[in-house]
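During the second half of the funding period, the structural biology subgroup turned its attention to how the target accommodates small molecules. The most pressing case was iron/sulfur cluster, which had performed well in the primary screen but for which no bound structure existed. We therefore specified the complex as follows and requested a full 3D prediction, including the ligand pose.
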Amino acid sequence: MDLEETKKHLEEIYTCNRTRCGFCIQKCPVYEVTSLETYSSRGRNLVARGIIEGSVEVDEEVLKLANTCLLCGYCEKNCALDNTQIFRDFKADLVESGMTDQYLEGGVDSVEKYGNPFKKSPESREIPELKSNPKSKTLLYGGCVYSISQQETLKLIAELLGDYKYLGKDEPCCMNILWDSGHKKDFKKKMKAVAKVLNDANVDELVTGCPTCFRTYVEEFGEILKPKPIHFITKLHQMVKDGKLKFESKEKVKVTWHDPCHLGRFGGIIDEPREIIKSVKNIDFVEMENSGLDSHCCGAGSGMLMSYPEIAIEISKKRYREAEAAGAEIILTFCPTCELTLGRGGDTIARDEMDFDDDDFDFDAKPDPKIKVMNLLQWLVTLKK
Ligand code: SF4
Ligand code: SF4
């Protein structure tokens, strides 16, 4: 197999193979739960070299090790190499040769047919409560998850923005699933059509609550996108700083913040959510062991919840345990996928702790996780203003 895209990184791959320093391995969330070096950056780079030099055959295991990188960027922080880009190109070569992950392909096909990864009609993005102002210079960009399955958060964002344009069924997907799953050529082609719709909206800024859409528009679209991508947290932070929003918790509560990889490590938005949370009266803010630039992925990066849910849930359980160790009662975040995944991690831990051998065990009982996982904005509206 000709790894055309991966070969562009040959110097980096050889540098890694020669040094074998291993700074990437410590705390790689996938390595932590699998203990397999081939699932770390150092291992993947060695396998990539083996394929390029002809000593390693491409098989299902190679496909698995390519798709078990969360693209979370944790290892890049400890390494001079652009590992996530190497692995994206590695996946792109596998896709070009016809090797694809069946579960990720379900999402990719859905984007082709329905314009979103969830097999929902474009009309499912129409939300009657959102009053679009066609003249507004701010585009409220929901993203597929908030627009289709978590509309309550999107409505809250809209309420605080006040004046916005919303495209509803005409809103395009950011196509990140194509990018992350290795459909690089297709992504580059579709990116132009997506940018055209957003540029034609004639707005100055695109405000979204989804960190993945935000990162995709900032990093991958770059200059072809005219409106400036902004994550809603930046707006919320400004409102709090200006004294327009004030909150107080009725009860003393310990909260922590989970940095979504696309918001923190990739987007540099680390202080803003913490300042928003710390502005709330009557709360204790606690940090998890891995936070800010060192934050750990929730487990769902690059579609892992679809392709390898057992690995994703093990990682989310570890992250949940970190919040537990910090003494948190609530994990706050602002990413629909992190919320879902950490919530599942908490549910799994709670279910594992249920005592099925107890004679009085209630088989109708649902798992009752100790820590709540909440969207920051959803949490703020529950507080006293
Ligand atoms: S990926 Fe980077 S940190 Fe890891 S072994 Fe290679 S050079 Fe070292
Ligand atoms: S990007 Fe994340 S999951 Fe992938 S190798 Fe690096 S630390 Fe591990």
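Two results from this model are relevant to the next phase. The first strand starts at residue 138 and ends at 141. Residues 246-382 form a domain with the Rossmann fold fold (CATH 3.40.50).
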